[in-house]
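We close this part of the discussion by returning to an individual protein. Part of our work consisted of pairing the sequence of a single chain with a tokenised description of its backbone. No coordinates are needed to read the tokens, only the vocabulary itself. The amino acid sequence and the backbone structure tokens for this protein are reproduced below:
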Amino acid sequence: MESKTDQQLHIFFLPYMAPGHTLPLMDIAKLFASRGLKATLVTTTVNAKVLSKAIQTSKNLGFEIELLVFKFPSVEAGLPDGIETSNSATTQEMKEKFLKAMSLIEPKVEQMLDQHRPHFLVADSMFHWATDIAAKFGIPRLIFNGTGFFSMCASMSVMEYQPQLKVSSDSEPFVIPNLPDEIKTTRNEVPSFLKTDGKTEFMKLVKASREAENKSYGVIVNSFYELESNYADHYSNVIGRKAWHIGPVSLCNKAEKEKAERGSGGSVDAVHECLNWLNSKTPKSVVYICFGSLTNFSDCQLLEIALALEASHQQFIWVVKKRDKEPWLPEDFEKRMEGKGLIVRGWAPQLLILEHEAVGAFLTHCGWNSILEGVCAGVPLITWPVSGEQFYNEKLVNQLLGIGVAVGAEKWATVEDDNVKGEASVKREAIEKAVTEIMMGAEAERMRSKSKVLREMAKKAVVEGGSSFSDLTALVEELSSFGS
């Protein structure tokens, strides 16, 4: 019988159906394929359309990488047909049904594992059942969490100690226990499901994912050691989880074509519009603004951002979600901002924009992919966390790395919070102050210098001899010898 060392290793990758999870796992699949392994991404019809061009580009480079597509059980979960990504589930009720659909795909994935018999399964942490179905076929399951070491350590600590916390209000700061540094947070900044009785569907999912993580082979982390070394060590040595840091994985996209296609389906017009506009600007003179695929601000909040940008007198590229109507946009705003500000509706080529020499700062929701992409571009950050682990990421950026300025967001938001209340949680004066400070303030040059140092560290980490390159090599070698 042919041993595993004599045959090509085959790895299945199962991403959670959200751009912030799917895109980095696509990059990770490319990294494994670049080491001679066969990589298969398992996803749904709608998500496959986003990945297909990147898959073809990788194949053209000689990588063995393919897609396996299945029908997402939208209708079975009570969703409209075609709702296959978490950002397309726009209400709390739809979000809960989307989570239900996550469990309904288990038999589909099991069937594909049975049919193709890969040697390993890399599955997003949201699929807690993946550990057990991998075990049915005698293969290890590795977890992809979608965030970095610091936020994983902080969130685990808060989850463990939160019931014991003695605070008088949700806004009272407390020190997160059992971390290498003294980091303070509030109950307002932690996920809202932690403040429930633990019986919500999402809390049940989080607990099941934690248990599955304990039983899994280990965790693949999109980070690099130099960025958060204390927390990489803490995660492995104190929390006791096996992990490999192999990022920043977005750096595997080297050609302009790869960067332009990432996450878009390849909007050529958007690429040309953004780059042509940036080409007319001087270095470090433009603020790039993007809040990711999940953030839904109210019209009131969008108006505050627009007025703040105008008052700051800074040049900007602002990515907003497509809407049929934009009542929030001030009258003649785009006309007044002509030449000074560019609003991009829908998708924008974020990697190419951040790398452009004209960009001097990045106003971000603190999603982990955006944080890393800003770091890789050497761009300081204006931080505006909204949900998920984003408040933890903000603390890493501002307190530990010293490359950001906060707008002052203070409360974790559900998907409907802003739209239901119709309020602006961050006022124009605070936004204007943060934008001005990072572009022209006394600390601007220091933050820019620190950002450049981190950029060089990130680039060194992923090339031969670098920390992430070496960790990926160690992981591939370990997997190659597994069970032999």
About this structure: DSSP finds 19 helices and 15 strands in the chain. The longest strand covers residues 38-44.
